[in-house]
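Lab notebook, bench 4. Still working through the backlog of constructs that have no structural model yet. Next entry is a single chain of 155 residues. Request: give me the structure tokens for it.
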Amino acid sequence: MAGPLKTTSEKSKLNISNKKFAIVVAEWNEEITEALFQGAHEALLQLGAKKSNLIRVNVPGSYELPLAAQRMAKQKDIAAVICLGCVIQGETPHFDYICNSVANGIMRVNLDTGKPVAFGVLTTLDKKQALERAGGKYGNKGEEAAVTVVGMLEA
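Model written out:
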């Protein structure tokens, strides 16, 4: 085990200034996913990435994240991918199907490509919980996803 992940205030030992990162963002629950994107984007810059090496890809919803992540991860010049989305539980089992499919799809992209692909997808019971994890009292899970992929590049 490599130890605890670094925070963005601790500079990575890895020089990521020449590495390209794809940030795939679901447009569904845009208020939340935009905050996650801002957290991830800022974290990568603080860790030493160049703004010109950060590529944003928008997809309609979280279900579409794995395919876009796979397309980006297959590109030779992409070092890592960050997937950002938000699925809020409703009254039907749709939530369970979407969450399981997205989690398994993103994991598969990791294993199939051998590149770090972060799961920055909030799966919450309500909007309040999502906001608390998109820059609220529980931090920003987009930032954590960025720190994770950099940590995995070092692993």
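Notes after review: The chain has a mean pLDDT of 92. The longest helix spans residues 94-113. Flag for follow-up if needed.
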